[in-house]
UniProtKB/TrEMBL annotation:
Species of provenance: Comamonas resistens
Matching PANTHER family: BLL4483 PROTEIN (PTHR33751:SF11), CBB3-TYPE CYTOCHROME C OXIDASE SUBUNIT FIXP (PTHR33751)
Signal sequence, start to end: 1-28
Residue ranges of every copy of the Cytochrome c domain listed in the record: 36-115
Domain of life assignment: Bacteria
Alphabetized Gene3D superfamilies for the sequence: Cytochrome c-like domain
This protein's UniProt keywords: Heme, Iron, Metal-binding, Signal
A Pfam entry, by short name: Cytochrom_C
Protein's UniProt name: C-type cytochrome
InterPro entries in the record: Cyt_c-like_dom, Cyt_c-like_dom_sf, Cytochrome_c_Oxidase_Subunit
Amino acid sequence: MRSKPLCNPARALLWLTLAMAAPLPALANPATAAAPLRTQDIALLAASCANCHGPDGRSTGGIPTLRGLPEAHLLQRLQAFKAGAAKDATVMTRLAKGYDDEQLKALAQWFSKKGQ
Ligand code: HEC
């Protein structure tokens, strides 16, 4: 008796296509994108900044402190990093690209409020 192969190239291609297509409707759904950020989500995003900028954005080293800076300044800097327009930047140009505009705004607001 000849056993059927479990996986042939055509079937593999079909699965690959399905796997790639599946998440797309979720990404394209504007309702998903517009979901407001919850405080705990922003806290989580901000926690990843602590490695370099210190706990709550209070730096003890050469990396700038974020805590208590004006929201408009933080947002302007983050947007400049993301756009690649901050010529003095090193790592932030890459990091800022990982966040959408809403997240950058939330982070700017978060750190500016930390000073109050
Ligand atoms: C790997 C270290 C590192 C991490 C992580 C990091 N930063 Fe930075 N950040 C820097 C450095 C270094 C600078 C100085 C500019 C440069 O060289 O890119 C900077 C500069 C900034 C500035 C400009 C401050 C000013 O007054 O000019 C802002 C705003 C900022 N970072 C926000 C953030 C936020 C928000 C996060 C978390 C999402 C974050 N950074 C995560 C290293 C880091």
